[in-house]
Amino acid sequence: MTAPAFDRRAVFAWCLFDWANSAFPAVITTFVFATYVTQAVAPDPVSGATAWAGATTIAGFAIALLSPLLGAFADSSGRQKLWLAASASTMAVATTALWFVRPEPASLSLALAAFTIATVAFEVSIVFYNALLPGLAPATHTGRVSGWGWGLGYAGGIVCLAVMLVLFVLPERPWLGLDKAMAEHVRIAGPLTAAWLVLFAAPLFLFVADPPARRRAAATAGGWRDLLDTFRLLRRDHRALAWFLVANMIWSNGLTTLFGFGAIYAAGTFGMSTQEVLLFGIALNVTAGLGAFGFAWVDDFLGSKPTIAIGLAALIVVGAALLVVDSKSTFWILALAIGPFLGPVQAAGRTLCARLAPEDRRAQVFGLYALSGRVTAFLGPMALGAVTAATQSQRWGMATILPFFAVGLWLLLSKLPGRV
To answer: Rounded distance, CA 222 to CA 216, Å?
Structure first.
C-alpha cells in the first residue's frame, strides 16, 4: 500500500478537531460542570460524586455496546466523516441542554441525563476521528501527528477554560448579563462548549478525505460478522495488537476516572472554589499540552511502547503522592508535575494502534481501540463511587485509580515486543 502524502492543510484540520472537541472533557467532564453539579446541584458533595460516577458508568456501558458495531461500519463503509458529523451533532445538542441545569437538587436528573448522552456521543465520535489518522501522513510521522493533535487539544481546553474564567466567572457582572445567583455564569459552559465544537470542527469536514471503503456493510448482522472475523484475525495473526488492546482497556479505566473526578477531588478535598478549579484546570492543561507536544517526537524516535511506559510509571508515582498530601500548595505542585505525562499515554497509544494494525483493517481496528478504551470504562468510576460511598472519603475513592495504571503497565512491558 502506498504511504499517504503529508498534506499540511489536512493534518492541521484533523488536529483542529482535537482543539474543538477537547472543550468537552476540559469544561464539562473535568473542571467546571462536574464540579458545579457535585457542589451546587446535588444535595451534598459525596452523594454528588456518587451520582456523577453512576452517570459515567451508564455512559461506559452504552459506549461498550455501540462501539463494536460502529467500528465495523467505519471500516467497511468508508464514510467516517458522516458518522463523525452525526455523533458530534448529538454531543453539541446534549451539551447545550446543560444550560437548563439550575442550582437545585431537582435539576440533578437533567444534568446526569444530558451529560450521559453527550459523553456517549463524544466517545463514539472519537472512533471515526481516530480512524482518519493513518491516511494523513507516512508511518514515520504518525507519532508526531497524533501528538500534535493531543497537544492542540489541550491548548483548546486551556483557551476555552480561559474564556469561561475571563468572561463569565471572574467579572462581578458576567458577559451577556448572566445572573450569578442562578449560576448562569457556570451553566453557560454547556452552550459555550457546543458552539466551540461546531465552529472549530468545520475544517475537518472540508479538508480531510474519507478513506476508501473496503466493503459495504449492508446490515447490522453483516457488521457483526465483520467484527467477529477481525477478532479471529487478532487472535491468530496479531497477538501483540490484541495484548495492546487489553492493556489499553485497563489503563484507560484509570485515565477516564482521573479526568472525570480529578477536579471533583480537588474541590471536595482541598475546598477549591469554581474560580480556583478553573485556574487549576488551565495550569494543568498547559503542562499536559507541553508534554503531548514534546513527547510527539519521542514517540517517533524512541517508540510508542517506551513513551507509554514512561507516562504510566510517572502517573503511578506522582498519583500516589497526590493522594497523601494535605497542603493545597503541595497538591498544586504535584498535579502540575503529573500533567506532562497525561497526553503522551493517550497520543502514543493512538500511534501504537496505527502501527500495529493490519493495513486493510486499520479503521476497524480503531473501532476496537475505542472499544478497548470504553468496554470496561465503567469499572473505574464504579470502583471509585463504591469506595467513596463506603468510606465517605474521596481520597480512598481516588486511590482506586492506581491499580489500573499498574496492571496496564505490566501488560505493556511483558506482552508487547521491545520497540514499537
So the answer is: 9
The answer to the question of residue 41 being in a domain is yes
Residue 325, SS3? Answer: coil
Q: How far apart are CA 246 and CA 344, in angstroms?
A: 18
Structural contact between residues 5 and 145, judged by C-beta atoms closer than 8 angstroms: no
Query: What is the grid cell recorded at 358?
Result: 493490519
% helix / strand / coil in the chain, to the nearest 5? 85, 0, 15
Q: Which residues of the chain have pLDDT under 50?
A: 1, 216-221
- Specify the residue for cell string 505493556: 412
Instruction: Give the total number of structural domains in the chain.
Output: 1
Q: Is residue 249 part of a domain?
A: yes
Q: How many CB atoms lie within 10 A of CB 175?
A: 12
Burial 59-97 (b: 16+ CB within 10 A, else e): bbbbbbebbbbbbbbbbbbbbbbebbbebbbbbbebbbb
Measured CA to CA, the distance from residue 63 to residue 65 in angstroms comes to 5
Q: Are the C-beta atoms of 217 and 77 separated by less than 8 Å? A: yes
Please report the pLDDT score of residue 418 as a whole number.
Answer: 65
Residue 405 sits in a domain of what CATH number?
Answer: 1.20.1250.20
Establish if 217 belongs to a structural domain.
Answer: no
Q: How far is Cα 149 from Cα 364, in angstroms, rounded to an integer? A: 21
The number of helix segments (H) and strand segments (E) in the chain equals: 19, 0
Cα torsion at 20, 149, 345, 360 (round to 10°)?
Answer: 110
pTM greater than the 0.90 cutoff: no
Domain of 278, in residue numbers: 8-208+222-415
Give me the DSSP letters along 97-147. GGGG--SSGGGHHHHHHHHHHHHHHHHHHHHHHHHTGGGTS-GGGHHHHHH
Grid cell in block for residue 63: 459506549
Closest CA to 385 of 408, 370, 401, 372: 401
| Burial label, 413 (beta-carbon count in 10 A; 0-12, 13-18, 19+) | middle
**E strand segments, 188-282:** none
Report if residue 2 sits inside a domain.
Answer: no
